[in-house]
Write a structure and sequence with these properties.
The chain has 12 helices and 12 strands. The chain is α/β, with parallel strands linked by helices. It is elongated and about 105 Å long.
Amino acid sequence: QQLRDAGIVAFDKTGTLTEGKPALTDLILDDDFEHDEVLALVAAVESRSEHPIATAIVAAAEKAGLSLGAVTEFSSNSGTGVTARVDGRLVAVGSQRHMSHLDFSDFSEAIDRLAAEGKTPVFAAIDDRLAAAIVVADTIKPTSKSVIEALHGMGLKTAMISGDNRRTAEAIAAQLGIDEVRAEVLPADKVEAIKSLRQGNRIVAYVGDGINDAPALAEADIGIAVGSGTDAAIESADVVLLGGDLKGVLNALTVSRATLRNIWENLFWAFGYNAVLIPVAAGVLYPAFGILLSPMIGAGAMALSSVFVVGNAQRLRGIKGVTS
């Protein structure tokens, strides 16, 4: 019932609107560092992380045949980055927020260019010196744009919640035609982002797949978990989509609207039918017309009403989902 009344559908970005399988595309180096040196150190640190970006960096190092050093003193700051020592060298990997004390001016042009392309670089600092901007691209799912367009066709607004910087998030939202963007959102702040989308008493549906989406899925009026996502997300959701196809969101909305419409049809029939025939069965027509309703006919009419209601409900079995 709530899903039928949803006013806005918000999406997590990584793994929901995108494939969630990023690949390393560029390593933009400071002049004082070498490509293989930086990649090996960064991959060693990221080998201790389960983040999709970390997986992409480690895969790139393995493909290049680089050996990874011993990692000690590993620490993670959720949503911003990781820090560790690799063979005694201090290595930090993450967002600008993770290493805000460093000077990013040498990378400002690259940052602006990548943001305009809808890409978010992560940065590597070695021995407290900024060494590289690492570009990891995550492909948008083929169905994402068409799903957003279909939601607009249903009269719904759309939003995207992302940890990317604002320029990057807005570039991706523009590609998909998304109405509202909540950018630079840490995992712990997603609940507040959901609350902000409720302005104007809107009912919010949230679609996510990751462990850090679980609180937001629970907070949303309707939490929709992508079935290919984590168990934590699935347990927190009200609706679970089979597989990772976002067209399931459209199918859930279609079924919701059709079911509520069917319920109102059955209520209208049941009340209307009984409002007419119960007085007849009670003899309201007898004084004027001498008409009485036989108990057998009354029983048959009551059964017919039930058959109609059940038969109308069976029409829901014929609802066709979106398949292409």
